[in-house]
UniProtKB/TrEMBL annotation:
SUPFAM superfamilies: P-loop containing nucleoside triphosphate hydrolases. Residues 8-194 form the Thymidylate kinase-like domain. The gene is tmk. Keywords: ATP-binding, Kinase, Nucleotide biosynthesis, Nucleotide-binding, Transferase. CDD domains: TMPK. Belongs to the thymidylate kinase family. This is Thymidylate kinase. InterPro entries: P-loop_NTPase (IPR027417), Thymidylate_kin-like_dom (IPR039430), Thymidylate_kinase (IPR018094). HAMAP family: Thymidylate_kinase. ATP binds at residues 10-17. Gene3D superfamilies: P-loop containing nucleotide triphosphate hydrolases.
């Protein structure tokens, strides 16, 4: 029986990464020993993907080069981690997936949507997450959270206008696929968010 594929999305500073380990632990308890919960991230998730992550997060490059490298890392990620895990019946939780490319390279940077759609179809075919959790916050909240973080990467250093476009594209994607997305108000206390996450997990 095929496993389930869950993705966490949101602009930088939305707080999504805070909840991944907790959700994985909750799911593993529910699934027991029969299936494993695999946690991974994009860009990254494989040896090659992690090398590409360092380049993508810290090197300037042409927009199309950036998009192509994101999808190259994703193809490797699918082949080495995601597809084999799902075929085994394991569940996969990924910190970002293709929605992030539409949000960041498309919404944020302005790459034509049809180019991203062509790459999406080429790299993953009809595969889509079973559930996408979109952690949403106002831009000023995200900026405040990032201000006290480590040295920012090139995406975290972007302007508020960039993040406004990125957030808007995330919300557009969510409206386009309401059966797949759940939007969470990430301005709430962690405990309150976990109560909602617990309800979502119970419905899977």
């Amino acid at each position: 029986m095929r496993g389930k594929f869950i993705t966490f999305e949101g602009i930088d500073g939305a707080g999504k990464s805070t909840h991944i380990a907790w959700v994985a632990e909750q799911l593993q308890t529910r699934l027991g020993d029969a299936r494993r919960v695999v946690t991974t991230r994009e860009p990254g998730g494989t040896t090659l993907g992690e090398d590409l992550r360092q380049i993508l997060l810290h090197r300037k490059m042409h927009l199309e080069t950036e998009a192509l490298l994101m999808f190259a890392a994703r193809r490797e990620h699918l082949a080495e981690v995601i597809e084999p895990a799902l075929a085994r019946g394991d569940w996969v939780i990924s910190d970002r997936f293709t929605d992030a490319s539409f949000a960041y390279q498309g919404g944020g940077r302005g790459l034509a949507r049809e180019r991203l759609e062509a790459l999406e179809q080429w790299v993953q075919g009809d595969l889509q997450p079973d559930l996408t959790l979109l952690f949403d916050v106002p831009l000023e909240v995200a900026a405040e959270r990032l201000a006290g973080a480590r040295a920012p990467d090139k995406f975290e250093s972007e302007s508020s206008a960039f993040f406004a476009r990125t957030r808007q594209e995330y919300l557009r994607r969510a409206a386009e696929a309401p059966g797949r997305f759940r939007i969470l108000d990430s301005t709430r206390p962690i405990a309150d968010i976990q109560v909602e996450l617990q309800e979502i997990i119970a419905s899977l």
